[in-house]
Amino acid sequence: MKKPLSNALKTFYGVGDLGFSLMVSVGMYLQTYFLTDIAGFNLAMVALIVTIPSTFDAIFSPVYGAIIDAVKPMKWGKLRSWLIVTPPIVVVLMALQYSKIGPDNVAAIIMIVSAIVARPLFNTPWVANVALIPLLASTPQEKVLLSSRRGFWTNLSRVFFSYIGTPLAIFFGSVTGSPVLGYTILQTLMAMCMWGGYFIHFRMTEGYEELPSKDVPAETTKTAVKKKEKASIGDILRNLFQNPPLIFLMIADYGRYMATFVVSASVAYYFTYVAENMALMPFFMLVTSISAVLGSLATPTLNKKFNTRTTTIISAFAAGAFLVVAKLLGLQTYMFILAFFFGQFFIGVLTSTLVALYSDTIVYGEWKTGQNTAGFIMGLMNLPLKIGSLTRGIVMSVALASIGFVAKMTPTPALKAGLINVLALLPAIGLLFTGAVLLLGFHLTEAKVKEMTEEINARKQGAVD
């Protein structure tokens, strides 16, 4: 029987995600500005610094979880060990990405290499952290609770960063007399938040994960590790290609990520050319971030009324519908923001429940293949995100070109209508796509997961006997 969830986990599981989100927010919101306006790189060099690590990350993102499953567990456990092993190294590597050491070419190489090395070192503990959810939870409700707490802390980080990000960089730049060093210190502090948050998770989850045995003969230990802990390449691939719910879930998740990325990339255009009031953009970001926090907090209650699959599908369709309403109200700025507020609420729910659905596919994979590859499957959550990040630029370029956008052009009714479609209608299509794929392709219910879990436990008990 699993150890009951502690009150600390029920409340504070996710502070590591808060730290992680603060760390990556520097790159998400400030990297391009830092490279062009603070570090002074030309646009061609900026493209290389940003694109090369991102491409590497997208290609190798499925490997991060496989590493966890394939490597012999360290002394603190198969998953928990990663929360404390690599984060200290990541702090140094992230700081190097926001420094400028030597001439432009040398500085660019340092940034690119440090970014490439940092990606697996911070993505692997991220995967391990998410993979802890099915290990910690004993019921579907506990999975959703932990997923929603993680969503709460992640969304809360966006509220924090909107207030502290740029001001801290400016402050430290002023104090040190070096704008570049201001950003170096900012990124270092945010990375240290990730390190500290994951250490808190490490301590809170003590006693929940089985540790490698020290008291059995070496050969016995090797055999047990091979059978129970380590997964072969064949086991990993079978858990992907013999797992239809996982494949449909990743396809659906891509629609959600594309919606999120298009909104973040296009919101500035709306307030510049449609609302013609950039002062409202911080208000929009604050309101929608708070709405996502509320959605994550409401998730356990909604899940009790329905179930994880149904809640996810309803949330995807509801979020898409509210963004369609936002498209219709696009010229009425405050009504537009209100429609986005409700849409973001359901996106907050969706973000929480999708994690629980991924954990259900772990059960399906083990039931189907006989091998638990939790790290690999939870690591695949990264794949739709990375593909969405890569294709965002293409989607935005095509969308802006299709409406005849030219930088600093005078807003026309046609331009405003086009930008409203980019910000509201395209993400709405992505979210409706997510709901449709889950409705038609993801048929893994909580009842089925419970039956599979009981069968897996019976198999294990039979093997022991």
The biggest beta sheet reads:
none
Radius of gyration: 23 Å
Q: How many angstroms does the end-to-end distance come to?
A: 17 Å
- Assigned CATH class of the largest domain: Mainly Alpha
By helix and strand content, what is the structural category? mainly alpha
Kindly report the average pLDDT value.
86
Helix content: over 70%
CATH-level-2 architecture of the largest domain? Up-down Bundle
Would you tell me which CATH topology of the largest domain applies? Growth Hormone, Chain: A
What is the ordering of alpha helices and beta strands?
Answer: HHHHHHHHHHHHHHHHHH
CATH homology-level superfamily of the largest domain? MFS general substrate transporter like domains
Model regions low in confidence, pLDDT < 50 over at least 5 residues: 218-227
Total count of helical runs of at least 4 residues? 18
Q: How many β-strands, per DSSP?
A: 0
What form results from the Cα inertia axes? Answer: globular
What's the domain count? 2
Fraction of residues in β-strands: under 5%
Structure description:
The chain has 465 residues and is mainly alpha-helical. The protein has two domains: 1-210, Growth Hormone, Chain: A (Up-down Bundle), CATH 1.20.1250; 231-465, MFS general substrate transporter like domains (Growth Hormone, Chain: A), CATH 1.20.1250. Helix content is 81%, strand content 0%. The chain has helices at residues 7-12, 15-38, 43-70, 82-85, 87-96, 104-136, 140-176, 179-204, 218-229, 233-241, 244-274, 281-305, 308-328, 333-369, 374-379, 382-402, 413-441, 446-464. The protein starts with 6 loop residues before the first helix and ends with a helix. The chain crosses the membrane at residues 12-31, 43-67, 79-96, 108-136, 156-174, 180-200, 254-273, 279-298, 310-329, 335-358, 387-407, 419-442. GO terms for molecular function: symporter activity. It comes from Oxobacter pfennigii.
